[in-house]
Amino acid sequence: MNATILFLGFLFGAILQSANLNRYNVISGMATLENFAVAKAITVAIGIGAIIIAIEIGLGFATYHIKPILLGGIAIGGIIFGVGMAILGYCPGTLPISFGEGSIDALLGIIGGLAGGFIYTILLPSIQSMLGPDLGSISLYTLLGQHQFIFYIFDIIIGIGFVWIGFVLNKKEKSTNYKWLYAGIGLAILNAVVFLTVGTNRIIGASTAYPFVADLITGTTQNSYFTKIQGPGQWEVLFLAGAFVSGIVISLFRKEFKITLIHSNWEKYKGNSVAKRIIWSFIGGFILIIGARMAGG
Fold it and tell me: CA-to-CA distance for 59 and 70, rounded, in angstroms?
């Protein structure tokens, strides 16, 4: 099973690298509204994935993994996560891939993320009330489960709608590059495979790995939060390890491996100060993981 998870992580990394969706310039370009590749790929992955997963669950090949809606956690954590992602230029899943390609700022983001994960574990008991109210595990399926035909009609319409958004963004960007489309389809298929009960029977995630590793390193394991994240944390560590290997192997194969701290998009807006990039990479990773964990991943 461990080898399977590593392989799935490798595929995850390879799909993102195929369209450079892990790169600092691409992700930060989304924050400055100059590059919509990530947003386009995500909308396609959501749209096609929603349809595929609904079908495979309907056929009995998979089950839903519906997270509770914690309004405070999603709202506040989402904002904090967005700020961290804009500063850092990576998300929890792309950090190890870009580190594998030689990006030192990604490594600093990982270290910051580990620190953020540890602090979140410590602070969680005192900020628990901020995460609510808990509206429970609400989904289109739970609302329309008794009317499956209507559910599938809505699911397909919503799925097509998300894919359409990707093409609208592409038209706005006036881009003739469709690597984002192939990457989005690839991510949707990979997610559907991970969902299968004969596979790993879970969702793809990344941010849980950071508090899990940080708590292990610091010995902060005698608490209910670590008990809760231990299972998914172990899975995500292996998954991200596979993504890291993908970053190394594919960048070497494409002859693109390069030790880099300051990327051109950072230099364009923030200059070429090494100290500034080091500090903000750490802070960005720290904020990123705290926001991600508040929002439930």
Answer: 30
- The per-residue pLDDT for range 176-191, each reduced to its tens digit, is 999 999 999 999 999 9
Mean pLDDT of each 10-residue bin along the chain, 297 residues long = 94 98 97 95 98 94 91 96 97 98 98 98 94 90 84 96 97 94 98 93 95 98 96 97 98 97 96 97 98 95
Spatial distance between the Cα atoms of 226 and 204, rounded to a whole number of angstroms: 19
- Cα–Cα distance, 144 to 46 (Å, whole number): 19
Question: Quick one: three-class SS letters along the chain?
Answer: CHHHHHHHHHHHHHHHHHCCCCCHHHHHHHHCCCCCHHHHHHHHHHHHHHHHHHHHHHCCCECCCCCCCEHHHHHHHHHHHHHHHHHHCCCCCCHHHHHHCCEHHHHHHHHHHHHHHHHHHHHHHHHHHHHCCECCCCCHHHHHCCCHHHHHHHHHHHHHHHHHHHHHHHHHHCCCCCHHHHHHHHHHHHHHHHHECCCCCCCCCCCCHHHHHHHHHHCCCCCHHHHHHHHHHHHHHHHHHHHHHHHHHHHHHCCCCCCECCCHHHHHHHCCCHHHHHHHHHHHHHHHHHHHHHCCC
Residue 127's region, left for phi above 0, alpha for psi from -120 to 50, else beta, is alpha
Those residues with Cβ within 8 angstroms of residue 172's Cβ, 6 or more apart along the chain or in another chain: 36
Each residue's pLDDT tens digit, 146-161: 788 999 999 999 999 9
Q: What is the largest CA-CA distance in the chain?
A: 59
pTM of the complete model? 0.95
Domain boundaries, the chain: 2-294
Backbone torsions φ then ψ of 258, nearest 5 degrees: -155, 125
